[in-house]
From TrEMBL:
Residue ranges of every copy of the CCHC-type domain listed in the record: 269-283
Protein name: CCHC-type domain-containing protein
Start-end of Basic and acidic residues biased regions: 49-60, 233-252
InterPro entries cross-referenced by the UniProt entry: Retrotrans_gag_dom (IPR005162), RTL1-rel (IPR032567), Znf_CCHC (IPR001878), Znf_CCHC_sf (IPR036875)
Length: 293
């Protein structure tokens, strides 16, 4: 028993000390009144805000994207729209023409409505059900083709919004990857599996930009090499041109004078016999005639 008491004595001492601390009055400390930090409001006011979506005019093809942008704006800048009424007024401010004509009367008649009910009303009016049904199929068969990856990402996200389905990250990644070019698919194999879909698309854009720069530099170097090779080849195969022929060349001059003298002799006409090519002094007929006399 004595041994047990000795073993428990340290524990008992700690418990007693804890009880004494709890029973003893806490020392009174004067806490200065906290003044509101003047930088808090300044930092909040200087926070980078999302840009306002374009005002929706009632075109059904633009409705899914506009709704997505409005929801993102209200979520990111929620401190600017703390109440349901503030959110509804903001959504109304981002409409025009036909969309305003549809939404404003409904808000006046349903002033106690929620933002969710407002979106349900707009979905009924402007959501293209047939387009929404076609979007998943188009999304699964979408291909990059000869387009830039940025354009492919833009259309992929647009169809994803139109589909209105909550695709898992793995499904989105698989559909997106299958639409990429074969070369990009191979380069994207080493991309980490745990990154978000947004990070995955950004990685595809970055790799595509790097690949474009590499191909551009390669083509430029190839053209430079071909141009240099062509110049050296021309230098090797070029033969010296023969000297220009001169009109005063001796052989030509002699031949030319001979031809000229012969042509002039051929034009001479004998007045004794009337034939050309000789004169009367050398005319055979004239000599015969003189001998007979």
């Amino acid at each position: 028993m004595a041994q047990l008491v000795q073993l428990l004595s340290p524990i008992t001492a700690r418990l007693d000390a804890m009880e004494r601390r709890e029973l003893s009055p806490a020392p009174q400390t004067h806490t200065p009144e906290t003044q509101p930090d003047p930088t808090t409001y300044l930092e909040r006011s200087q926070k980078k805000r999302l840009p306002d979506p374009e005002r929706f005019d009632g075109d059904r093809s633009n409705y899914p994207g506009w709704k997505y942008e409005c929801e993102g704006k209200l979520e990111y800048d929620s401190h600017l729209y703390p109440s349901q009424d503030a959110k509804k007024r903001y959504i109304l401010s981002r409409t025009k023409e036909k969309a305003t004509q549809v939404l404003l009367p409904w808000l006046l008649e349903n002033q106690l409505s929620t933002v969710k009910e407002l979106w349900e009303h707009l979905d009924t009016q402007f959501l293209d059900v047939h387009r929404q049904k076609r979007a998943p199929n188009k999304l699964r068969h979408l291909k990059q083709g000869r387009r830039l990856v940025r354009d492919y990402v833009s259309e992929f996200n647009q169809l994803r919004v139109e589909a209105g389905q909550d695709f898992s990250k793995s499904v989105l990644r698989e559909m997106f990857s299958e639409g990429l070019s074969v070369e990009l698919q191979r380069l994207m194999l080493r991309t980490p599996k745990n990154i978000s879909f947004k990070e995955y698309t950004e990685e595809a854009i970055e790799i595509s930009d790097d690949l474009y720069r590499i191909n551009l530099n390669s083509r430029s170097q190839e053209r430079t090499s071909q141009r240099a090779h062509g110049i050296s080849h021309q230098k090797d195969t070029r033969t010296p041109s023969p000297p220009e022929k001169m009109d005063w060349e001796p052989t030509k001059a002699g031949k030319a004078s001979t031809r000229t003298s012969r042509s002039s002799v051929d034009q001479v006409k004998c007045y004794a016999c009337g034939e050309k090519g000789h004169i009367s002094k050398y005319c055979g007929r004239s000599s015969k005639a003189s001998s007979t006399k």
